[in-house]
Design a protein that fits this description.
Helix content: 40-55%
CATH architecture of the largest domain: Alpha-Beta Complex
Number of strands: 9
Largest sheet: 6 strands, mixed
Distance between the termini: 19 Å
CATH topology of the largest domain: 2-enoyl-CoA Hydratase, Chain A, domain 1
CATH class of the largest domain: Alpha Beta
Strand order of the largest sheet: 1-2-3-4-6-9
Length: 277
């Protein structure tokens, strides 16, 4: 599903690869990017074949976030001159937020492979992914504070649940860059690789390892983990009893155990398609 902003490839092992492809524009976002990303991820989710998604980029930087010229008037939603316009602003902003929510809500894990700068809105995107890996030259920054606004597409809500809250606050208040090694120490990334090529290779290998597991068990694990982030342990355990009763499959387990013992691929069935409404 090619767009002006990214291209999408799909491998036989169930790994989808979405690559930002505007290096000449530092892979910046413009208004059409958001529904394009949402619809692409939603389509992969609905189809059921995708077992992991890698989001990578091209050029020197992963992404410089929202293109600055967008704030010069390209988005009608930026009009907050009256109560009616402010109400419309709220609705439009929530729609933009939902475009990154699609990454978090997908039934498959999403892995961001970051090289160079992950700036502003790009960090909102990366924070909505399940896992992040980066190159040694990568850095992460809440750029919005430099242009006089609070970040508003999810990073302020997700980042304190990924890194220590004090680091999230430091990033939000100062806009200072978090380099690759400190990002690894803080838990923002799972691995630091020498360069962009090694980073993408690591992300694809990680995705392939996930894709080899039962997609039912992986989807269930993601549902449980997402729920546990925002709920007390008791409530999360109660959710797990209901979730496990829905997805427990003894035949799937038998196939997994047999493949594990034989050190072969299990050949799990894909998830059932979801009718899109």
């Amino acid at each position: 599903m090619p767009t002006d902003f990214f291209r999408l490839d799909f491998a036989d092992n169930g790994v989808a690869h979405l690559q930002l492809c505007r290096p000449e524009r530092l892979n910046t976002f413009e208004p059409p990017f958001f529904p394009a990303l949402r619809d692409t991820v939603s389509a992969l989710n609905a189809e059921g074949r995708t077992r992991a998604l890698v989001i990578s980029s091209t050029g020197k930087h992963f992404s410089a976030g929202m293109a600055l010229d967008v704030f010069a008037g390209q988005m009608p939603m930026l009009d907050t001159s009256s109560p009616r316009q402010r109400l419309a602003f709220q609705d439009a902003l929530r729609q933009l937020m939902r475009c990154f929510d699609a990454l978090e809500e997908a039934r498959f894990p999403v892995i961001a492979a970051v090289q160079g700068g992950c700036i502003g809105g790009a960090l909102d995107l990366a924070a909505a992914c399940d896992l992040r890996v980066c190159s040694a030259d990568a850095f992460f920054t809440v750029q919005e504070i430099h242009i006089g606004m609070a970040a508003d597409l999810g990073v302020l809500q997700r980042l304190p649940k990924i890194v220590p809250p004090a680091i999230a606050r430091e990033m939000a208040y100062t806009g200072e860059r978090l380099g690759a090694e400190r990002a690894l120490q803080a838990g923002l990334v799972n691995a630091v690789l020498p360069d962009a090529a090694a980073t993408l290779a690591h992300a694809l290998a990680l995705a392939a390892g996930i894709a080899a597991k039962s997609p039912l068990a992986v989807a269930g694990s993601k549902l449980a983990l997402n729920y546990a982030v925002d709920h007390p342990t008791g409530a999360a355990l109660e959710q797990m009893t209901l979730l496990q009763s829905a997805i427990f499959d003894i035949d799937e387990m038998a196939a997994a155990i047999a493949a594990w013992k034989a050190k072969t691929a299990a050949g799990f069935e894909p998830l059932a398609p979801v009718e899109r409404v």
